[in-house]
Amino acid sequence: MIKLIISRYLWLWLVFLWIAIPFARAQEGLPGEQVEVIANFEAQLLEVEKLPIAPSLPPADTTRPRLSYELTPRTLSIDYPPPRIRPLAFRADPLPPAYNGYVRAGVGLPQSIYGEASYHIFTNKIADMLFYMKHHQANLSNDQVENQAFAQTALGAKGTYYGDLGFGVQGHMDYSADRVHFYGYNFDGTDTSGIRPEEVRQIFKTFSTGATIYNTTQNIGDINYNAGFDLYLLSDNYAARETGLLLSLDATKWIAQTHPLHIGIEVDLSGYEDTTTQNLNTYTLNPSFAFHGDVFKVKGGLRIVSFNQEFSVYPDVEATLQLVGNKLMAFAAAQGDRQKNTFRALSTYNPFIASRFPALTLKTTDYLDLYGGIKGNLNVVSYSGKVGYKRANDLPMFVLDTTDVSIRRRFATLYDTARIFYVAGSLLVHPFQGVELGGAVRQNVYTLNNQPKPWHLPAFTLNAFATYTGLDDALRVRTDLFVENGVPVPAADGSPDNLNGLFDLSLAVDYRFTQHISLWMQLNNLLNNKRQRWQYYPTYGLNFLVGASARF
Questions:
Q1: Which helix (H) or strand (E) element contains residue 188?
Q2: How confident is the model at residue 4, as a pLDDT?
Q3: Is residue 314 packed enough to be buried (19+ CB in 10 Å), middle (13-18) or exposed (0-12)?
Q4: Residues 264 and 284: beta-carbon distance below 8 Å
Q5: Measured between alpha carbons, how far is 383 from 367 in angstroms, rounded to an integer?
Q6: Which among 22, 182, 468, 470 could disulfide-bond with 408, CB atoms 3.0 to 4.6 Å apart, if both were Cys?
């Protein structure tokens, strides 16, 4: 034990000596100096003033920072099926039976026959086609007036194809032949008889065709469009020819599904040939916008028409204001256009027109129509009344062709600038179940630049009707009244004269005694009024037709 302790102390001394000997040797090289102690160092702290500090918490920050984020918009394409809304089931009224075919035929006096037929074909809601024909002729010459006869024939087809992509294509093809006779020589004082019908016959033969493409469903842009063409070829018995082509494009953009922004473009070309050539070509641009408010509607637009390398601008403006809902509304408008007086339009209005230049001249009528009025719907009564002023440059009128030395009494065209003040109104009344009354009236006051009177143009016109439907819609009765003033014509010395007026009362009865067969009767001009709508051309007196119709 003692040895162990001694051994440990011996090792400690050896280690101490091993460390101390090098250190002692290092001190041997230090220079010797004398240190003198002057005073003992005493460290003291200076007294300082203690500052009192009362700690407190900082105020709480209650503000909300406004953070601004900028996100890059991205269009997401989401394909999902549209929801199917299933309404509550109500018992629907049974639909009336549908019939594809219709035939109507009759005979009457004076020596008249009437026939009409049509057939409609449906193909699985993809397409439909309608074929039709109509013929009506009458001959009064054997009874009272030589060659007072006419015949009207029309036939054609039209159909529509409904595409899967939301468009439809509609087309038509028609042919008509209207036959009249220049029987005016019977009343002009000429001692003439035994005239063959071929000598005074006129036949207007017209072939027309056309097609239109349009949207049948609402598209993504909410734009309705319509584009198409119409072509006609017209000829008569005197080697006159006219060709017309109309190209049209209409587009309407609906804003907020309420306000239509519309633009229309028309190219209307027509050419007439007899001994000379007369062309009427117009190009029309019609932009407009309509705003529909809660109690008012305003439309503003223009019609820009190019004719003979000249441009004319017309207003296309309308405004409607509800004063008492739809019971009383006020309206006003300013509209203008350039209307073409083609041979087709003039001969439709006056079938006894001449078809040779210079008796027949074709022009366009430049007009501006300003009008205003009131209208409304009082449940059982719908009404409308307006007052207007119309300025018409090159208004067509008709006078007898004095250069025609033949027995045919034909009319030449005459043009003048007219200012027309007019009052017009219409009325529709449903006083009882199955009863309907209605009519329209118009009074024109003409002021002409050159001519003393508006030759062969009526100033007062009244059309009225009354219908009754009863016996579960099996019986239908209708009566019509037509009143018109005697039109002015130039007398032999050129002074103004007036023809007799029109007062025509007619009655029509249709009774269906089975679901498929009906009997009908039509009595025309019950008062036997033989007015001359055209000078030396009195109309038929009392005449009637009776017949039957079938649907299948």
A1: none
A2: 45
A3: buried
A4: yes
A5: 27
A6: 182
* Pair of tokens at residue 428: 């529709």
One DSSP character per residue, 88-126 reads: PP--PPPPPPP-SEEEEEEEEETTEEEEEEEEEEEETTT
Cα 117 from Cα 134, distance rounded (Å): 7
Strand 488-490 relative to strand 496-498: parallel, antiparallel, unpaired?
Answer: antiparallel
Q: Could you give the CA distance from residue 182 to residue 168 in angstroms, rounded to a whole number? A: 45
Among 537, 448, 443, 549, smallest CA distance to 496 is for: 448
Residue with tokens 């890059």: 72
What is the tally of helices (H) and strands (E) in the chain?
2, 26
Contacts of 206 (CB under 8 A, 6+ apart): 174, 175, 176, 177, 232, 233, 234, 344
Supply angle C-alpha 515, 478, 439, rounded to 5: 135
Beta bridge partners of residue 503, listed in sequence order? 483
pTM of the model: 0.80
Residue 141 carries which side chain, given as an amino acid letter? Answer: S
Listed as own residue / partner, the contacts of 424-432 with beta carbons closer than 8 Å and 24 or more positions apart are 424/385, 424/386, 424/388, 425/383, 425/384, 425/385, 425/386, 426/383, 426/384, 426/385, 427/381, 427/382, 427/383, 427/384, 428/381, 428/382, 428/383, 429/380, 429/381, 429/382, 430/380, 430/381, 431/380
| pLDDT tens digits along 345-399 | 999 999 999 998 999 999 999 999 999 999 999 989 999 999 999 999 999 999 9
pLDDT digits (tens, 9 = 90+) for 274-308: 989 999 999 999 999 999 999 999 999 999 999 99
How far apart, in whole angstroms, are the C-alpha atoms of residue 146 and residue 143? 8
- Alpha carbon separation from 490 to 357, 384, 447 (Å, rounded): 21, 35, 17
Contact 389, 424 (CB under 8 A): no
Two structure tokens written together for 545 = 């037709």
Q: What's the chain's length in residues?
A: 552
- If one compares 27 and 536, the residue with the highest pLDDT of the two is 536
In 3D space, the residue among 268, 293, 283, 166 whose CA is nearest the CA of residue 217 turns out to be 166
Q: Radius of gyration (Cα) for the chain, nearest Å?
A: 49
Rounded to whole angstroms, what are the CA distances from 295 to 131, 330, 376? 45, 11, 13
**Residue 348: its H or E element:** helix 343-349
**In the predicted structure, residue 193 carries a pLDDT above the cut 90:** no
Q: Name the 3-class secondary structure at 467.
A: strand
Rounded distance, CA 166 to CA 527, Å?
Answer: 54
Identify the pLDDT of residue 5: 45
Q: What share of the chain is helix, strand, coil (3-state, %, to 5)?
A: 5, 55, 35
